[in-house]
């Protein structure tokens, strides 16, 4: 492989590694509504790597997806819905997959485990 091609290849690998790192989701916690109607903050325990869609990468497209969901008593997201996205549908699948893989601390209110509703998170996709 010639030197110029090798440098280009290495640059793409480094850029792709930066895009899919688990730290790409800067948010440390989310807030949802408990069954009693009060807001409860829940920390993010684990975030999977963000997978940048190949088509968007090839076209040089950036954007965001705002995802709404609930958190179960065991800290898993469910009832995941795309609330807004730009460009439409380009990143929806990748954002939904990311949210499905996030694990939260068990939501508690007054020492009791509760499920949360009305949680939302915006995921940015940038090259």
Summarize the structure.
It contains 3 helices and 8 strands, in the order H-E-E-H-E-E-H-E-E-E-E. It is of the alpha+beta class and 127 residues long.
Please estimate the helix content: 25-40%
Low-confidence stretches: 2-24
The CA-CA distance between the termini, in Å, is: 26 Å
User: Looking at this structure, what is the CATH superfamily?
Assistant: TonB
Question: How is this structure best described in words?
Answer:
- This protein is an alpha+beta fold.
- It has a single domain (3-125), classed as 2-Layer Sandwich (TolA/TonB C-terminal domain).
- It has three helices and eight strands.
- Strands 1-2-5 form a three-stranded antiparallel β-sheet, with no helix packed on it. Strands 4-3-8 form a three-stranded antiparallel β-sheet, with helices on one face.
- A hairpin with a 5-residue loop joins strand 3 (63-71) and strand 4.
- The model is unreliable at 2-24 (pLDDT under 50).
């Amino acid at each position: 492989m010639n030197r110029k091609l090798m440098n280009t290849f290495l640059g793409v690998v480094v850029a792709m590694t930066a895009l899919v790192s688990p730290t790409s989701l800067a948010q440390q916690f989310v807030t949802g509504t408990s069954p009693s109607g009060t807001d409860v903050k829940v920390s993010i325990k684990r975030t999977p790597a963000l997978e940048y869609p190949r088509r968007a990468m090839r076209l040089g497209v950036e954007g965001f997806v705002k995802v709404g969901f609930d958190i179960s008593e065991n800290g898993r997201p469910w009832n995941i819905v795309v609330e807004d996205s730009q460009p439409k549908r380009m990143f929806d699948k990748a954002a939904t997959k990311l949210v499905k893989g996030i694990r939260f601390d068990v939501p508690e209110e007054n020492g009791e485990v509760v499920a949360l509703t009305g949680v939302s998170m915006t995921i940015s996709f940038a090259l």
